[in-house]
Write a structure and sequence with these properties.
The complex is a heterodimer of chains A (358) and B (357).
Chain A (H helix, E strand, L loop, with lengths): L8 H11 L5 E5 L3 H10 L6 H12 L8 E6 L1 H4 L9 H7 L3 E5 L4 E3 L7 E3 L5 H10 L4 E8 L8 H20 L3 E8 L7 H21 L8 E2 L15 H13 L8 E4 L6 H13 L7 E6 L1 H11 L6 H20 L24
Parallel strand pairs in A: 1-2, 1-10, 2-3, 3-6, 6-7, 7-8, 9-10
Antiparallel strand pairs in A: 4-5
Helix pairs in contact in A: 7-8, 8-9, 9-10, 10-11, 10-12, 11-12
Chain B lengths: L8 H11 L5 E5 L3 H10 L6 H12 L8 E6 L1 H4 L9 H7 L3 E5 L4 E3 L7 E3 L5 H10 L4 E8 L8 H20 L3 E8 L7 H21 L8 E2 L15 H13 L8 E4 L6 H13 L7 E6 L1 H11 L6 H19 L24
Parallel strand pairs in B: 1-2, 1-10, 2-3, 3-6, 6-7, 7-8, 9-10
Antiparallel strand pairs in B: 4-5
Classes of the chains: A alpha/beta (358), B alpha/beta (357).
Chain lengths: 358, 357
Amino acid sequence: MSCFVSKYADELAKNAAYIGTPGKGILAADESTGTIGKRLSSINVENVEENRRALRELLFTTPGALQYLSGVILFEETLYQKTASGKPFVDVLKEGGVLPGIKVDKGTVELNGTNGETFTQGLDGLAQRCQKYYEAGARFAKWRAVLKIGPNEPSELAILENANGLAMYAAICQQCGLVPIVEPEILVDGPHDIKKCAEVTERVLAACYKALNDHHVMLEGTLLKPNMVTPGSDSPKVAPEVIAEYTVRALQRTVPAAVPAIVFLSGGQSEEEATINLNAMNKLQTKKPWSLSFSFGRALQQSTLKAWAGKEENWKKAQDALFVRCKANSEATLGTYKGDAKLGEGAGESLHVKDYKY
Amino acid sequence: MSAFVGKYAEELIKNAKYIATPGKGILAADESTGTIGKRLSSISVENIESNRQALRELLFTTPNALSCLSGVILFEETLYQKTSDGKPFVQVLEENNVIPGIKVDKGTVEIAGTNGETTTQGFDSLGARCQQYYKAGARFAKWRAVLKIGPNEPSELSIQQNAQGLARYAIICQENGLVPIVEPEVLTDGPHDIQKCAAVTETVLAAVYKALNEHHVLLEGTLLKPNMVTPGSDSPKVAPEVIAQYTVTALRRTVPPAVPGIVFLSGGQSEEEATLNLDAMNKLEVLKPWTLSFSFGRALQQSTLKTWGGKKENVAKAQEAFLSRCKANSEATLGKYGGGSAGGLASESLFVKGYKY
């Protein structure tokens, strides 16, 4: 094969396929300490380890939620945390049939000579870290590359650097038994229309898959986490069916069938928007050789966060809110979501933050 | 879109999809004058225009054969030829729902500094030529790029040159209303095993699709004509199921779902081998977002040619042989081939070392 056959090949393919199980998706709970701090401060909660731990316990122990999830992405600190009664989060997830995942990138740095474009760091010692994470129970990893749309962006340099970074990361993960989620996020910021987003998305994805091939990555043991194809944030909105059509077409033109599943990021979309768009894609009658699911952070947690507000007495209310979003998105992966999810406060709220930084 | 959506976009998509109809495939009858000369001389027939015309008439008027075909690739001379009653070949095909296609490349030339690797020529006035062919009734085109496997081959230079060439040819075709068949043939010559062929095929196809993306080619309006993934010609043969597994895996890893159909070349395979392998692929229980069909030259015509021998009195029998191969391959595209349409002739290897068109 042109791919390097790692000793973990069968396991990688099995786990990647499992994550793509129809009816399930990923909860992205891998906010770094800095980022989760912003979330917590928005509900007036102090950014200390105990609060970070409590929030994640709230999420992972929500009754009935885990059945709608095939994976949860964790930040390194969380990988080693436990419930209040002392059970490791990793065990909670495994018992619930959910694969633990781990964010392995170390954020973005600006590319010299560009107009604010970035590349992602984290390759140093990555193999050793991945081995440690595998021992701790992680079975997939995530690395976020970021590109933006502008008059001269994304530049060829940014595309190449980010595609190459993703491919190197992916190859290393596979050597260590972790399914790499390949995330080339094209930011929604800007006044461009949906056609422009489609064009850029297709160009970026083509570069990614060329790089993955160059680096001998086994596609059957990977997942893709792309942006949906939408108008820019400063452009008028369009119907979910239009987003679905442009998104799926972009994927048909670039993502080989060997990739078992595509798990969308939610970007700045509100909880409800993200679900409805995913649902529209799964209703679309066209060739889709990969399953289409979710890997949502803000779009799964926003209402939950607001409902909790850091207070013990709100625990159940907050868990109910998470359950509602998990179930809604599960239905969306099957194209059966009717938009009747009991809207929590904030479910319709845009989560777009200009020039969003993790 | 990153794809160029010109005035022919809908038509290209419609035609590409039609060519990819399950149960149908392509007859590659585009042998250049020189190449058809070799075929004719193998049955002791003189290489003159009337004989070339007679052979093609024999093929295109075979009763019931055209219903197994969605397209026929023609050489330029043939595009303008007629039956002995004066009916243009193009019309014969169109009346039977077969789309005429045209070979537009002008053969290969060596790339200096490589070990016999080649690039394909044919860009001069390609756009204008495509327009002419469109006017004459052609609706798809074909361009053959060739790569070989060796200790240091295919080189990055050869891969890039051929991928870029295919992409440039493809976009020019689409600008002029012709569906481009993209053919990156990795030759079977060599002692390498099937894994090596798979690795090279995947690398080549990945480069081809990257180039097509760069050149804004509309994938929904293209077809792919690849080699099957097999052991090298000097290596022991393997079962059709193995060929099917490696081939389909390679395609799943590289060919975007937007491509409507994949029409295999037969390389040096015998008629029966090619059919059995195609059938095995279509029987494979794995998700295939494009149809898998044939674009065979030798593997459709070999028995027919020998049976004909250039003699009028053999035409009917030769046509039977041709129909038999067409039907067999049509069934193979549906995974329904039962085998046994192999006469002795059908099992003959058609491998020629260092084969040149």
